[in-house]
Amino acid sequence: MKRFWLTFALFLLFFTHPAFADVTLQAKALLQGAYDTPSGLMRDDLRSKGYLPPTQPYNFPPFNYAGSETASATLLAVTGDKAVVDWVLLDVRDNTSHDLLARKAVMVQRDGTLLDPQTGNNTLTVTGIDAGTYSVSIHHRNHLGAVVDAVALSAATPLLNFSAKEPLPAGDVDANAKLISSGPSNDVTILLGYILTEPQNSQQSANYRLNGYFNTDLNLDGVTVYAGPNNDLNLLQSNVLLHPNNHSFSMNFIVEGAKLSHALPLHALTANELLAAALAELANKKAIPPLLTALYGTTAIAYAPGHNTQLLEIDPWVENVLPILSGTEGNTLALAGNTASARYAAFGVPPTDLFAAGQSLAFEAPFGRLLAWLLAGEPLDSAVLTTRQTVALSMTAAGSRSKLKTWLAQQYPTWAIVECNSVASLASCYSTAALVVTDGGSNTASDAFAVKQVLIDSMAAGKPVLYLHTEGWGVDEVSIAVASLMRFSLPYGGNWWADDVANWVNVNAMQSADWDKHGLAGIETVLNHFKAGDYTQTGLDTTFYPGANKVRAVMTALDERKINLFQTGESRLYRLLALLGDRYRQAVKFPMDKDATNATVFLKALFADHAVYNYRAINPAQPDMGNFSRSDFSHITPVTKTVTLTSRQNFRAAGVYALPGQTVTVTRKDNSATTTTIFVNSLRAGSTHEFETNGYKRPKWLQSAAIPLLSGETIAFTSPYGGALQIAFNANDQPVEFVFENVGEHPFWDGSEDNASFTAKLAKGDYDWAEFVTPAFEIHSTLDKMRQSASDTRWGGTLEGFAAATMRYTHNFPHVLAGFKGPGIDVVPEIHDFAAAKGFSIDNLDLVKHMNADQATCGYGCSGNPYDAYWAFDPIGHGDIHELGHGLEKSRFRLDGWNYHASTNPYSYYSKTQYFNTTGGEPECQSLPFKEAFDALQASVGQADPVAYLKTNYWDAVIDNWSRGVSMTLQMMMLAEDQGKLADGWHLLARLHILEREFNRALASDVLWDSKKVSLGFASFTRTEAAALASNDWMVIASAQVTALDYRDYLTMWGITFSAKAAAQVASFNYAVAPRAFFISSPQGYCKGEGFDGEQLPVDGGQVWPLATQKVRLMGNSFR
Fold first, then answer.
1. Residue 321, H or E segment
2. Domain count across the chain
3. Closest CA relative to residue 184, chosen from 746, 820, 720, 620
4. Distance of CA 637 to CAs 634, 746, 891, Å?
5. Is residue 688 domain-resident?
6. Which residue segment(s) compose the domain that 119 sits in?
7. pLDDT for 786 beyond 90
8. pLDDT surpassing 70 at residue 29
9. Given a cut of 80, is residue 3 above it in pLDDT?
10. Which residues pair with 100 in a beta bridge?
11. Under DSSP, is residue 548 helix (H, G, I), strand (E, B) or coil?
12. Per residue in 1070-1094, pLDDT tens?
């Protein structure tokens, strides 16, 4: 029992009482774990197996009982109905205050009668208590207690039956008077953790059977079993699910029993113990494996397979597979492994091919010793090579087969070689051999299963197997099948590009380099710093990130590959690292500051972020998640929900919420032709600014790995953070259906049917996140920001109006201006007819775009899909459409010297213009410097060098000239409309987009370019010249093509230069010359049609700006 309490602090509680008279009582209690319903008796397995301690076991937290009760050997030897089952604690308390007055450790017999172990009597004497009315309770180390109030105690107390209704419920592993199956402080985690960290459970298997007297043994049979027959978990979970008050059968329901005064919570294995175990495991891995020493001794290693060969990739968590030849670039060239019954080895090319060519001859001796290991195992004894052996040879590559046979005959003349050339007869052919050598034995894809199965059977029978890859750097279905059996993979391209070689002075050098290349050195560095507690915030690129990033990469791969190490029993190291991350996660307190917070504390939290591993059943919720979310969802009853939707790239919100620390099960029910992956949260890691002042406000990697889900498949995972679930697709317009189990339902709107629930949930605030989705745009928002967005009265006061505005102004108009077609995008004849006349394609846009209304990855808003921002979403918000604009703008639209934001904002202005035209509402466009531009242009007239004047006094006069660039673009639009070349000048940009995409497609080949260059307007340019065109040259030609206007003189007026060849190209079009005109608009009036109405002045050097001076008002640097 001492081992169970190894990690807990010892608090002893002593009670002293004045002299009072004694009282007596008799009592009965049944323990569910041991109770046998048919007989009405409890099992006495603990006693019969010798596990029941002779001394009371409650002298440790949370009980802290200091009594010295013992049971005699005679008592423990009693069998039959009166045999003892276990120890229990009996408490006598004040009936009003419930202060503890007396405590006694007693034993319970099979029939439930309590027994005083000191006297052997069923009448229990409680000393120091006067006759009176008391509260009496019973407690057990892993069953819920029970209490009976208002008991009249005297010298002749009647029988108290603590199990009058039912036995005391089992499952309270941590003795906190609660049965918790899921969520924070759950008993399942402790039970599993105890099994996994048992020193004798060297494989850390969840199926390990732990014998002895432990609190985790819920059925009191002397064996702790997590999974499988007679497991202890079923008792706990059934008590939770079937509790009469658990009306929804929720795994989150908490069953509460009689509380124990002075109880202290139990904790799982400490972080320091997990840290020590992980370091010990690393030390084991760092040691030179005996096989490598046996193969190479102290000699140099030289092996050069050549570039037309394969590499062998071993997943980091795979055990019992060892690189035996590592290249200097870190690639595995050969490996050895073993199963429970057989040994095997694999090479990316037959070494005998190299030997036959006089290459890598230094490896001949190690190769021979490897054959000895395959035949006889360890300790390696080369004498086996001199005895007669039969080799089964199954190789399709005739040349390699011949070279191998020749080499074997030369080296081991007594050996017999049996050729196995028929897949149908492989089993019988292999059965006579001492060693199987194969390259798969077939190139036919349909043979893959049969080849693999024969090898499985042969290895199960103890046959060693040597796999020699003979397809160069290529692969086929058979080689993939063999590789999967031997637990490695064959990467695309193999060794073709790396051309890796093994060239080491000795095996120590190879092992050391391998250790470093595979990231274990970085992990060791991190753990050593944690052990020493000596981290600083300097040098983290060498002292922290290599190891942390390796851990994150492995945990992400495990999630994406759907591997639960705690079920497979693989990789003790990465299981320990996952548990260490769990442990550190429990201690995190936000916010933290990189300077003010102790560096080791800070980096333990960041390590916990990197070590998140979701594809497992038990993953405790992080208690403090900062400004991301609450962690306590005990007010939520999880549900099962079927979600049907139509696939849209790249992802869509599922409309359900993963609760932190609770396992989500997802089943895909459809057979549609799209891949699907499931992930939690849409938040980008960059939106957590851990190194800003007090910026570490929440976990870093809130978006989980994406877990693939096949048709008909079920997956289960647990996030420590929880969050809104998302589904990603690789194809559009496919009907899909999923069943989500054990999930929450946060505020989610996907149509009018959600109006009532969405509104009610927003108001109630049970979640900290809400989602609002339309067919083409989805908003993932913090609760407060969504409340702000959804309450905007401009959209008619309805959620449908808000959705329509989002589709119209956020989705439709920006993509109209970007020259796209697709669902929800208007077909504008002036745009589409232009494309048709020119023979240009209009690209189809059919994907969902997203916004995270939360924190920005950069600035105050940051582009991407999703883009993220600190503000609440607004369908015509400048920041929102600005960030979308970053995904639409093209660098060719920015002239030489323009700031990159000069091409970002027209999409926002266009939507705002359309809003004004539709509603008359204030568009709130950015202020632009039209007057400053006009004054500069007028001043340049008559200058000796107007272009130089404008460059110095206008374009380069401000560091950030984005507003000057976009002002000129708008003036070009106004001019095209004024000249009758466009009915709506804004469409100039849409046409430019279409032409630019067609231009890029044409650059793919000379043939394409020659077929398209005339219609594009670049007939005088070769493909090479066109690809190298400066933006000024491209724009002077393209703007002419999309408007049938010659902008050369107009651009010169603005001080824009271009090449003579570009000018000649435009001259060849013979288009009307664009006049030197400037269109009059107030700083924000262009969004209300000013300037587009044709009001203009000539740029002649003598005009004066006609409007009253208005200060240019910009709208913040963060999203210009």
1. strand 321-326
2. 7
3. 620
4. 8, 12, 51
5. yes
6. 23-161
7. yes
8. yes
9. no
10. 93
11. helix
12. 999 999 999 999 999 999 999 999 9
